[in-house]
Write a structure and sequence with these properties.
The protein has about 475 residues and is an alpha+beta fold. It has 13 helices and 4 strands. It is elongated.
């Protein structure tokens, strides 16, 4: 073999070897998303989609437009649009692809190829060396690293499910808030119409001298106050709808949809959830995620122990080619090439770093994660009890307003109108009764809104995705970021 050919062989052999060892399986991050989609649908009853190309984007856009075609969007339709169209949710789904890619990378043979060549001329001797170096520590810890990477994929899936539940919960709550805000506007508009008519009547009576200026002023200020409250309520309703629009990920002409101007009626009965604590501990996604993180830390702790003393061990294998040039008696030159296998081993001996600090750090991280899991268990029990109490009490309060307070207020107002027409009740008393009936209607609306928010809160308490989960998740991420620093 000539020297140029040998050089080429040594140069390209590692590249050919790496190509032979590459994974032939196709990288399919969608496989990791199927678990998220099925789990999310079992809880929310709605579909999810991970958009990765134009074709998928067009399909999702068509679904969103179909859901908005009816102009008036219900709670279920709003949640479905958000799960398909929320860009922050799409960004969290990308974390699954990152985790699957890391797992894919770990599954590849640990052939971190290093090519070394040397060329020299000493006494007409030229030596070419090519070494393919493989990290032995990567081989030793490969199974553990694969295990840890698998847990990271599972954690990314659970985080995606949790984020999906958060978006669904936030969207349903925003829908309830928006509908209640527009119903409040409707109530105030009806009251303002009645107050406007009373103000005109008072002005007419005042012109004939049948009503004092004080009574006229009471009617007019009542109308003015209602006008101001109506304007404020309309602003709040518009802002509530904008919050819903943001969660649904809409812009442009798509935001022209409407929400109903009245909340759903109260159910006839409420569900009894006697084992709500056990149900929450069994189904909460954030608890499962905390358990998985604790398990991953435990496995990572084992990896730390495996690499405690030997931080870098390499073994190189290759071939050495040596060419000698000898002078002949007749003045010519004779070239001789000899080949010999080459093995190179290297180890880094930790003189100052015995690995004890890394072990202690891993132990403290595990201890912290274990305590966070225990804290999460306590909080989940309390959240489940609180959510159920809010649900039951909210239903009782809303039903009390519906069945007792509002009928009585309506009766009082009717009687006040009759006595006013009979010149028995004064204008001030009539205005007071009307004002109190308006306040009772608004209080009843607030009670119904609180019930439907508590209904959504109960679902979040059982499966996760509520407002408390977001705060705790932010604390965990902040702590993890501090460790990385």
């Amino acid at each position: 073999m000539s020297l140029p050919v040998l050089k080429a062989a040594v140069l390209f052999a590692p590249l050919l070897l790496a190509g032979c060892l590459s994974d032939d399986d196709e990288f399919l991050p969608q496989d990791g998303f199927q678990t998220v989609s099925l789990r999310s649908r079992s809880i929310t009853g709605r579909d999810t989609a991970w958009v990765q190309d134009r074709r998928q984007a067009a399909a999702v856009d068509a679904k969103v437009r179909a859901l908005l075609a009816g102009r008036t969007v219900g709670a279920d339709a709003a949640v479905q649009v958000a799960l398909l169209n929320n860009k922050g949710l799409q960004a969290s789904y990308a974390d699954i692809g990152v985790a699957v890619a890391d797992l894919w990378q770990e599954s590849l043979p640990p052939m971190n190829v290093r090519l070394g060549m040397s060329y020299g001329t000493v006494d007409f001797t030229r030596t070419v060396e090519g070494l393919v170096v493989s990290n032995i520590m990567a081989l030793i810890t490969r199974e553990r690293r694969l295990d840890v990477a698998t847990r990271q994929v599972e954690a990314a899936q659970l985080e995606a499910v949790l984020r999906t539940l958060e978006v669904a919960s936030q969207t349903r709550r925003a829908w309830v808030e928006a509908v209640a805000a527009w119903e409040n506007v409707s109530l105030l508009n009806r009251a303002k119409v009645a107050a406007d008519a009373a103000a005109e009547l008072a002005a007419g009576l005042g012109g004939t001298g049948a009503m004092t200026k004080a009574d006229q002023a009471r009617e007019q200020v009542f109308y003015a106050e209602l006008a101001g409250r109506t304007a404020s309520a309309r602003l709040e309703a518009r802002l509530a709808k904008e919050r819903l629009v943001r969660l649904m990920g809409l812009y442009g002409k798509d935001i022209d949809f409407e929400v109903p101007n009245a909340l759903p009626r109260l159910p006839r009965t409420v569900a009894k959830r006697e084992g709500i604590e056990a149900e929450a501990l069994r189904n909460r996604v954030d608890v499962q995620l905390a358990k998985l993180r604790l398990e991953a830390l435990a496995r990572s702790y084992g990896l730390t122990k495996a690499t405690r003393f030997v931080s870098d061990l390499e073994l190189g294998a290759g071939v050495e080619a040596e060419e000698e040039v000898e002078e002949k008696e007749d003045g010519g030159k004779e070239r001789k090439t000899t080949f010999a296998p080459a093995i190179e081993a290297g180890i880094t001996i930790p003189i100052f770093d015995s690995g004890q600090a890394r072990l202690r750090k891993a132990e403290f991280e595990y201890l912290r994660a274990a305590n966070l899991l225990a804290e999460r268990g306590v909080n989940v029990r309390s959240e489940a009890r609180s959510a159920y109490q809010a649900y039951r009490s909210g239903f009782d309060i809303a039903r009390h307003y519906q069945n007792s307070v509002l009928p009585l207020r309506t009766t009082l107002e009717k009687e006040a109108v009759l006595t006013y027409n009979g010149m028995i009740t004064s204008t001030f008393e009539l205005i007071t009764d009307t004002r109190e009936r308006i306040e009772a209607n608004i209080a009843a609306l607030e009670a119904r809104k609180n019930f439907w928010l508590a209904d959504e809160g109960l679902t979040s308490a059982v499966y996760g995705g509520g407002e408390g989960d977001e705060a705790e998740q932010a604390e965990v991420e902040t702590a993890e970021a501090g460790d990385d620093d």
